[in-house]
Every structure is written in structure tokens, then in C-alpha cells.
Design brief:
73% of the residues lie in helices and 0% in strands. It has 462 residues and is an all-alpha fold.
Length: 462
């Protein structure tokens, strides 16, 4: 009977992970990769629409600029979503925020689906902006929700599932974008609108699952709701230790308000955490990995991969974030070696930055600073992704086969910083992590948790 209860509770946690992920970081990866397949079709549609309006075709450099804008509006929307995520997480809670977030997906799917009939490439741009907002919200709230819902010993593994769903979304977007499926010249509006499917799955499943116990107790002060959520996630036995830990953190946060994003940079006790967030968050996007998914066809075409095989090579890039590796070369006999090098680059990204960086804000900051930290991390990530997405085609034109040399320097610097300054968080409670960071920040002072403060305002204010 006890084994059966554990199995049931384990399934509830697994369902919570899947429900949050399918409409969360899965959407991020999916919408990041599906834009690659219809590249030529959307460029032709943009040119034809412009010619029908003005009587003249767009010059090639303006077609490239319009295409880079369509790609880059996604991370720009992500920036808006990241700034929106903190207030949503505090006002509505983690679970409700993920549910409300699907409004952006539904709106974007409608715009994508009717863009061709309406003869409007502006509808594609607006749709990309909206799915970016959706991704920006979910990329911040999903790790927070899962990290606060998981037991201490599983927190790292559960939070890492965000990276797994991102990779699954990338692969699925590449598969659905095959010419044999929705990547053809007539079906590309349906391909872009297919983001509605994972959103619908989340809307159907997530309402049946519990809210973050930490949010219910510390932010809402609802002990009964917290205990009910813990019982659903853990079972009825041996909750005293975890509840005691939550009560200790609640007592430490009592009378404190949630920090605002700019306050993180002003607080000396948070300096190490903020620095780690900024350095590693920037390195994750400036390493150039995510640009591969949006511009993979152009990269492989430059490498000399035959046109008919490019779409299958693109699927390999997505599979790498789960499994494998690639780089480019102009020599015919090294084409497959080039592909393998690009795959290896993406594999290393999936093992390290993709999974770990996203959960730094969850583990390095306490309950009062966590939403603001997620906003800072998300905003930084999307700004960098926007800049890389906008500039990547022009960098590729300028550097050709040396395209990834600047990104190599970023990777080396990020690795050095991680090895020297990032503390280990595995197997520690949030309070233990906070106290350890306090000791590192103030080695000569008496020890104490980082969240102690004289501020006395409601904890649910941002």
C-alpha cells in the first residue's frame, strides 16, 4: 500500500512537470525552431505582398532585413514576457500565470493562420511578438513553479526538465517543419499556427494539478492549502520536516516585501548571485547556439550540404540538444564531419548552459528576491537573443567559415567564471544555499541568512 501511494504521488509530480513543460519551455523550443523551415516561403510571401502593394519588388537586402526582423521579434516579445513574468507570478501565482499565459499563444495562432489569406506579413510579425511574450513568461515561471514544488533531493533534476522540454520542442518543431508535413509552400501558415496544440494541452491538464506549496505558504499565508498541495505532491507521510523548513523560511521572510529588479543590483548581499546571473545568462545566448535553430538552413547551405538533405540535417541539430553534435566546411569530403561538429556544439550546450542557467534564479535567490531575479535573468536572455538573431545573418556574411570564432571566446569566458565563482547548490535547501552565499559575500562577518531585512511591507508586492 505504501509503495502504491509513493507511485501515485510520483506520478502527480511527473504530471505536474509535463503539464508545466508542454505549454512552457516546449513552446519556447518549438517556436524557436519552426521558423526555420518556411524561411524561403515567408521571404517570397513578403516580397510578393510588397510588390502587390507598391508595384515593385523589395531589394534583396531589404528582404533579408524583413526576415531578420520576423526572426528577431520573437526574442523581443520574450523580453516583454520576462518583464511581465515577475508581477504575474506574484499576483496570480505560479500555476495560474502559466495558464493565463496561453492567451498570447491563442492570439498568435489566429494571426499566423489567417496571415496568408489577409495578405499581411505584418500579422506574422505580430504573431511572432506574441509567441515571444508567451515564451518569456513561461521561461521564467516554469522553473520557479517546478523548483518550488519539487522535494529538495529532486529539485535539481525537476528544474532541469525545463531544458529537456526546450529540446523536445526544438526537435518537434523541426520534424513538423519537414516538407512532407507542414513545411511545404502551401502549409506554412498552419505550421506557424500549430503552436496552439501544446497550449491547448496545458490548458486541459494544468488546472488539475497543485499550485506551488512555497507560494501558498510564504506569499499567500495559506497553511492548509500548502499542506494539501504537499500531500498531493509527496503523499501523506513524513511531511513534518519539509513543512518545518517552509515555516522557517516564512518566518525569515515575515514582514519583507518582494524585491524589485533594480534593488538586486543595489543589495551587497546579492552581488555574487546577480553577477553570476548576468555573466552566465549572457554567455548562454552569446555562445551562438540558439541562432543555429533559426538560421540552420543558411548555415548548412554555406557548409555545402546538398539542398535536398538540409531539412534532415536541421532535425539533427535539434536532436543534439538531447543526444549529439556539428561545424561547417567547404570541402566535399568533410561535409559530414562539419555536420558532426555542429551537433557536438549543440550537445555540449544541452548538457551545460541550457539546463543549468535557467534554474540559477530559482536556486540562488530566496522567495522575496526570486521573482525579480527571474525577471532580470529573462530580460537579459531575451535582449541577447534579440541582438544575436538580428545580427547573425550579417555576421555570417562577414565572417563566413569563421562565423563561430567570436562565440568561442564567450564560451571560454563563461566556463572560467563558472569554475571559479559559481557555488554548488546540489542537495541543499533554499535556506542553506542562501546562508552559504551570505558567508561567501561577507566572509568576515557573523553568519546569517541573506533575506533578513528591516523592510516591513506585504510580501506579495513586487
Amino acid at each position: 500500500m505504501r509503495a502504491l501511494r509513493r507511485l501515485i504521488q510520483g506520478r502527480i509530480l511527473l504530471l505536474t512537470i509535463c503539464a508545466a513543460g508542454i505549454g512552457g519551455t516546449f513552446q519556447f523550443g518549438y517556436n524557436l525552431s519552426i521558423i526555420n523551415a518556411p524561411t524561403s516561403h515567408i521571404q517570397e510571401f513578403t516580397n510578393e505582398t510588397w510588390q502587390a502593394r507598391t508595384g515593385e519588388p523589395l531589394p534583396d537586402h531589404l528582404v533579408l532585413l524583413m526576415w531578420s526582423l520576423i526572426v528577431s521579434l520573437y526574442p523581443l516579445g520574450g523580453l516583454f514576457g520576462a518583464l511581465l513574468a515577475g508581477p504575474l507570478a506574484i499576483t496570480l501565482g505560479r500555476k495560474k500565470s502559466l495558464l493565463v499565459n496561453n492567451i498570447f499563444v491563442v492570439s498568435a495562432a489566429i494571426l499566423f493562420g489567417f496571415s496568408r489569406k489577409a495578405g499581411s506579413f505584418e500579422m506574422i510579425m505580430l504573431g511572432r511578438l506574441l509567441v515571444g511574450v508567451n515564451a518569456g513568461v513561461s521561461m521564467n515561471i516554469q522553473p520557479m513553479y517546478l523548483g518550488e514544488s519539487a522535494p529538495k533531493e529532486l529539485r535539481g533534476a525537476v528544474a532541469m526538465s525545463s531544458g529537456i522540454f526546450t529540446a523536445l520542442g526544438i526537435v518537434m518543431g523541426q520534424v513538423v517543419g519537414l516538407r512532407e508535413l507542414l513545411g511545404g509552400p502551401q502549409a506554412w501558415p498552419l505550421l506557424l499556427a500549430s503552436c496552439l496544440v501544446p497550449g491547448a494541452l496545458q490548458l486541459a491538464s494544468l488546472p488539475l494539478l497543485p499550485e506551488s506549496p512555497r507560494y501558498l505558504l510564504i506569499d499567500c499565508g495559506d497553511t492548509e492549502a500548502c499542506l494539501a498541495a504537499l500531500r498531493r505532491l509527496r503523499g501523506s507521510g513524513d511531511l513534518a520536516g519539509e513543512l518545518e523548513e517552509l515555516e522557517e523560511e516564512r518566518a525569515a521572510c515575515q514582514g519583507c516585501r518582494a524585491r524589485r529588479p533594480w534593488e538586486l543590483f543595489q543589495h551587497r548581499a546579492l552581488r555574487r548571485q546577480v553577477t553570476s546571473l548576468v555573466v552566465l545568462g549572457s554567455a548562454m545566448e552569446l555562445c551562438g547556439n540558439d541562432s543555429v535553430y533559426a538560421y540552420a538552413s543558411s548555415v548548412f547551405r554555406k557548409a555545402g550540404v546538398p539542398e535536398a538533405k538540409i531539412q534532415y540535417a536541421i532535425i539533427g541539430t535539434g536532436s543534439c540538444e538531447l543526444l549529439t553534435a556539428v561545424v561547417s566546411s567547404s570541402f566535399p569530403w568533410t561535409l559530414y564531419l562539419a555536420m558532426a561538429c555542429i551537433f557536438a556544439f549543440i550537445l555540449s550546450f544541452g548538457i551545460g548552459p541550457a539546463g543549468v542557467t535557467g534554474i540559477l534564479a530559482t536556486e540562488l535567490f530566496d522567495q522575496m528576491a526570486r521573482p525579480a531575479a527571474c525577471m532580470v535573468c529573462g530580460a537579459l536572455m531575451w535582449i541577447m537573443l534579440f541582438l544575436v538573431g538580428l545580427g547573425f545573418p550579417f555576421i555570417m556574411e562577414a565572417l563566413s567559415h569563421f562565423l563561430y570564432v567570436p562565440f568561442l571566446g564567450v564560451c571560454v569566458c563563461g566556463a572560467i567564471y563558472t569554475g571559479l565563482f559559481l557555488p554548488e547548490t546540489k542537495g541543499k535547501t533554499f535556506q542553506e544555499i542562501s546562508e552559504e552565499l551570505h558567508r561567501l559575500s561577507f566572509p568576515r562577518r557573523a553568519q546569517g541568512p541573506t533575506w533578513r531585512s528591516l523592510e516591513v511591507i506585504q510580501s506579495t508586492e513586487l
